[in-house]
Design brief:
Blueprint (H helix, E strand, L loop, with lengths): L1 H6 L6 E5 L8 H16 L3 E5 L4 H9 L11 E2 L2 H8 L4
Parallel strand pairs: 1-2, 2-3
Length: 90
């Protein structure tokens, strides 16, 4: 994903991860997600999550401190809502 983001022309400003299929997040996945979010921030890409519906996944965001790098305001009910809200932000 990072390769696609850095190689794309023009450079994207927003990445919305659609999370319907994520039912649980283990330590390794959490660390990978945290690293991705940090690298996106370093490259000026705003990250958002849409449709994080699983209670276990939501609890993992708390447990693994993902909210430390991705503010709760970046969690949306739909991809459309995320794009409409964040379009044009850095």
């Amino acid at each position: 994903m990072l390769h696609v983001l850095t190689a794309a022309k023009p450079k994207p400003k927003l990445l919305v991860l659609e999370a319907t299929g994520i039912v649980e997040i283990d330590f390794t996945a959490a660390q990978t997600l945290i690293d991705l979010i940090k690298k996106c921030h370093e490259n000026g890409v705003t990250v958002a999550i849409a449709r994080l519906e699983s209670t276990r996944a939501q609890e993992a965001f708390e447990r693994f401190r993902i909210y430390d790098v991705l503010p709760r305001e970046r969690i949306f009910r739909s991809v459309d809502e995320a794009v409409r809200t964040l379009a044009g932000t850095k």
